[in-house]
Design goal:
Blueprint: E1 4-12, E2 17-24, E3 33-36, H1 44-57, E4 60-62, H2 67-84, H3 89-92, E5 100-102, E6 112-114, H4 116-120, E7 124-129, E8 134-138, H5 139-164, E9 172-176, E10 180-184, E11 191-194, H6 207-217, E12 223-227, H7 237-249, E13 260-262, E14 267-269, H8 275-288, E15 291-300, E16 303-311, H9 318-326, E17 329-336, E18 344-353, E19 356-359
Parallel strand pairs: 1-4, 5-6, 13-15
Antiparallel strand pairs: 1-2, 2-3, 7-8, 9-10, 9-12, 10-11, 13-14, 15-16, 16-17, 17-18, 18-19
């Protein structure tokens, strides 16, 4: 069975047009072109309803680029299936009106025979005109079928639009309790994984794409959609200014990063894919009303440590904090990634190697 693969759908209500970028499944390689769905003067909302029917019927198949449409249809079908225990939108909206022919018993096994007098009543309209016969339908019967179709599609449309208008801001990633971080190979369900986050941790996407890919991977893989965390704490203006002073004193004020990290050989910025670290920063900042402005990262015999330099919200502590910094010492929150139970606030020492800071004790 052939179908059209859909790359994009544009709803142009003001122009009374729905444009579909699609390609026939019978043509190789795929050749996409823009075409108008149900061209003509048909009411725009009727076109919307018929589009949803076509997308459910398999004549139009959404490509990966149509994630928001796929998400809304999937969620709509799921909700309606759960509420009715069955939902076949295409079959339920197929018109079931009868077909009539005039007085020729040759076609009576397929159609209902009417007379020329019946036709004069105006209750019938032509549906097909061939060389040997003409078919008709009853106008009232056809109208009742159409009303039934659009009543069903209207209910479907309302649920669909609820999900289509849903807003999921930010970026997301896929995680499995069974496999760890997941990086899809494509969109058909196969994937790379890493319990250490070295593969999938770099793969972020919008929510709609994450939802569709998670569905393809399957429930047995226990895939969760998680939002890429961002820093949540809002420091006071005084904390921001104080952190700038300390960065200048440490020689770290020339970097255009929201948060600088001293690694083994160079200073880097906090990456949006440092999921675990950002969550730990958020937890610490919210708990102590403290603002993290630099981190020393390193591996030790105690574990992988992130030493977080911070500005507390207690201004009376700042003078002594700065005195310690002048002695290459500071109180820091030390997050032990290897053994988080050992994470704590404590006094640490550091030294400067150019702009790079390394921990000494």
């Amino acid at each position: 069975m052939s179908y059209n693969k859909v790359k994009n759908i544009s709803l142009k209500k003001k122009e009374n047009k729905i444009m579909v970028c699609n390609a026939s499944s019978n043509v190789v390689p795929s050749t996409y072109y823009n075409s108008e769905f149900m061209s003509g003067d048909t009411d725009f909302h009727i076109k919307e309803l018929e589009l949803l029917r076509a997308l459910n019927g398999g004549g139009l198949v959404l490509n990966d680029s149509c994630y928001k449409w796929r998400y809304a249809i999937s969620k709509t079908n799921e909700e309606l299936y759960n509420s009715k225990n069955t939902w076949k939108i295409y079959e339920d909206t197929t018109l079931q009106y009868k077909t009539y022919v005039i007085g020729d018993t040759k076609w009576s096994n397929d159609y209902i025979v009417i007379t020329a007098e019946d036709l004069k009543s105006g209750d019938y309209e032509e549906t097909y005109k061939g060389e040997t016969y003409t078919t008709y339908r009853n106008k009232q019967e056809y109208k009742e079928q159409l009303d039934k179709r659009y009543e069903i599609l209207e209910n479907y449309y309302k649920v669909f639009m609820k999900y289509f208008k849903e807003e999921h801001n930010g970026k997301y990633y896929l995680y499995s309790q069974k496999y760890g971080y997941i990086k899809p190979k494509g969109t058909k369900g196969s994937f790379y994984y890493s319990t250490f986050g070295s593969l999938g941790v770099k793969y972020v996407m919008d929510y709609y794409k994450a939802y569709c890919i998670a569905e393809n991977i399957g429930e047995d893989r226990q895939v969760e959609i998680k939002q890429v965390p961002t820093r949540e704490y809002t420091p006071t203006q005084e904390q921001i200014e104080e952190s700038k002073k300390r960065l200048t004193a440490l020689g770290l004020d020339n970097y255009n990063y929201d948060l600088t990290i001293s690694e083994r050989y160079n200073v880097v910025g906090l990456k949006e894919t440092d999921f675990d670290l950002i969550e730990q920063i958020n937890e610490f900042e919210k708990k102590y009303n403290a603002y993290v402005y630099h981190i020393i990262h390193g591996n030790t015999n105690l574990g992988e440590l992130y030493n977080m330099f911070y500005v507390s919200n207690e201004k009376e502590e700042w003078k002594s904090d700065n005195s310690l910094l002048e002695q290459n010492e500071t109180y820091a929150y030390v997050y032990n990634k290897t053994d988080s139970v050992c994470s704590e606030i404590g006094l640490i020492g550091f030294e400067k190697n150019g702009n790079l800071l390394t921990r000494t004790f």
